[in-house]
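Long-time lurker. I teach an intro course on protein structure, and each term I like to show students one example going from raw sequence to a predicted 3D structure in token notation. This year I'd like something fresh instead of my usual example. Would anyone be willing to generate the tokens for the chain below so I can use it in lecture? Attribution to the forum is fine with me.
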Amino acid sequence: MTVLQRALQQARWRHGLDAALRCLPWLLVAVALAWRLGGIAVALTVLVIAAAATAAFAFHGARKLDTRWLVRELDARRADMDDSTDLLFAPTATMTGLERLQLGRLQQRIENAPPPDLRPQWSARAHAIGTGVGAVAIAAILLWPARPGATFDDVLSSVGVTPAAPTQTSIVQQRLQITPPGYTRQPARDDATLDAKVPQGTRLQWTIRFAPQPTSAALVFHDGRRLKLTRDGDDWRGSDVLARSALYRIVVDGAPPLQPATLHRLDAIPDRAPQLRVLEPDRSLSLMTQGQRSWALAFEGSDDYGVASSATLRITLAQGSGENITFREQSMTIGGSGSATVKRFAHRLDLAALGLAAGDDLIVQLSVNDNRTPNAQTARSASLILRWPSDLGTETTGLEGMVKKVLPAYFRSQRQIIIDAEALLKEKRKLEADSYVKRSDAIGVDQRILRMRYGQFLGEEAEGEPKPPPTNDADDTHGADDTATAPEDEHGHADAGGAGKFGEEGAVLEEYGHTHDHAEAATLLDPDTRKILKSALDEMWQSEGHLRQGHPELALPYAYRALRFIKQVQQATRIYLARVGPELPPIDESRRMSGDRAGLANRNDALVAADIADPTLAALWASLDAAQVPAAPIDFTALERWLREHESRLADPLAFVAAIEALRADPDCVTCRADLRALLWPLLPRPATAVPRRDAGDAAGRRYLEALRQEAPQ
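-- Reply from a regular --
Happy to contribute to a lecture. Here you go:
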């Protein structure tokens, strides 16, 4: 039985393959015709469908070769089977003894002589005819001259079939080629959609195929600009450089309207200006230290697409004082290191080569460009100042120290003092002992200045003695570092009662530096707040002492407690102020209980409506109310004019344009009205707070009010 089943399987394969080969030429003809009329997509679809149909046809033909066909073939081709081949496939349980004897003989004969080749012959004639006709048909399809705009309807027309006239034009193929500017280093790409979000200055190229073909086509933008498409075979092409975000739709002429009439959106991403960050020094004003010979500068430039490899450092040297100040400027180019989008620019200035001397200021500013072409964008850093004090290394007293030390912008807060002390502790292992103590002493000086400033609210002076503060701003009258004081007076007055000589520094300070003629200025705080502030000053005193001795780790607990007390003082809600009573008009006692209503307002006067800040916007918003029946007409001209005038107030102007176009296309669209109304709602001015209506009261109250109205003069 295995030999017979193998012979049957081979016959089936031969029959199915022969049927498939007969269908193959016609399959190729159908695919070629579909490709010529509809393109590669239609051809692939026809190929899949035709291949499936051919496979089904071949399988159905092979299934016809069953067991009955095999029995007939064996009985016809072998006489030794005695027309009893059907016994080989019959159930043995129902056989008689004679049938079993005959079955044994047949099996023996099959084993001794295998069955003949039962595979059907190839349909050579059919193959030859089909191949020849198919080849001619395919050649005719491929070599037939193409007619612009030829479609399947044209083919039907050529054979005498009149196709139905199309009611709309559709896009059968579309492609948007995007080529960003070279400086962005972004690769060109193709997009299957007609919407895009690309960098500003990107070149866009549209390739569109319509069915049926129009006589002309164009892209119409929301600002009225029109880009005409040119025909290239079956495709329509157009290109443009995107300078700003826009909405557009495709318009065709000489063909039915395009459906759907989609509004496409192009978002232009503007190139951001480069960003510059100062890495070193960590402050805008730096004071020159003893023995400093150079000044290290470091900047970091970043940009979304790329930073230029070099930057320009502008250096300004200010020399002199008063009206005799001279400026000398020079520029130098410094190179950067790092990635294309983030670069670090570092340089060390030789102060001696620049001619910096005592009393001079050295001002630097870095400018860097991005890679934008043709017009690069420039970013400039903040100006950094290196100041060489004229008395560097000496204690300052008198007017010069006062002027230099009391600039409010350079005072440290208590929180900053804590931050500086903690940063110094972290760098302790990296610093030398002398440098560590010097930096700790500098923080202690800042702590002292801050303590003196808060002490002024308690009427204290430089060393904490309770004295009234001056009338003028204390920052303009007190030095920040009054360590060199005479024993007789903390202000540096050697002789409080003596008159100074004309032009002497001490005499000027004695006469103009300290005026304490308002003792009440130190009593603005209530006793509890004064107590908390006094505790804060005590903690600052301890913190200052440890910092000046080079022990910031011992000063931090006191500094933290001082900060906590300062926060309590800042949150104090009670201060003593002069009592000022309300200035009410005097009461005319002669009119009391007289019933004279002269000069009183008329209760019957109507309320006057408040002016609307933007009446045009309010009217447009009210006209979009979908609950109105019938719907109010929309003044699109006024709406578009308002949008042009107030475009800067809109977060997404294109969303407004799209909503207006949707409503213009369908004025009765309730959803479109609601969408546009929702976009306008955040732009409406916030209404002023109104007084709630008073309750009408009960019956007795209403009768009383009515009686008042009747008595009121008209």
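Some talking points for your students: The CA atoms of residues 607 and 692 lie 14 Å apart. The first helix runs from residue 2 to 38.
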